[in-house]
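Quick log. Single chain, no ligands specified.
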Amino acid sequence: MQIVITGLLAIVIVMTGYAVYLWRKRGWRKARQWIVMLIVLAAALQMVNVVLMMNAQRLLG
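-> predicted structure:
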């Protein structure tokens, strides 16, 4: 379970980093749709990650 949580966190970090990279490289107006999509997907994955962490703590504790 811990590997899945860590993997999801890594994916969230990569997606957020790529959104920032697009923003710096292409600007907000040209890459707005991609930036918003990456941020929304990263937020959704982070929510799944938090739920998994809470369930793992409840099962272990």
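Residues 52 and 59 are 11 Å apart (CA to CA).
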